[in-house]
Design goal:
72 residues, mainly beta, 4-stranded mixed β-sheet, 0% helix, globular
């Protein structure tokens, strides 16, 4: 799961933090911060435990678009 860095403090203290580099579709390398394991639950689905990457994002039309998938 990739979330906006602006949300990190709202989630409270998170364990096991490290900095990573990510290649994005625009052929750029950006840095992010990985935390975890964290409990992730989307309404209607069972909870899972995984890592979350926080990256700097610009909101589109005033809203962020988190990405759900895998951190490779």
């Amino acid at each position: 799961m990739v979330l906006p860095a602006a949300w990190k403090e709202q989630l409270g203290p998170l364990d096991s933090t490290r900095t990573i580099e990510l290649g994005i579709g625009a052929h750029k390398i950006i840095t992010g911060e990985v935390c975890g394991p964290v409990r992730i639950q989307i309404e209607g689905f069972r909870p899972i435990f995984n890592e979350v990457a926080f990256v700097e994002m610009k909101p589109a039309d005033g809203q962020y678009e988190p990405l759900i998938g895998y951190i490779a």
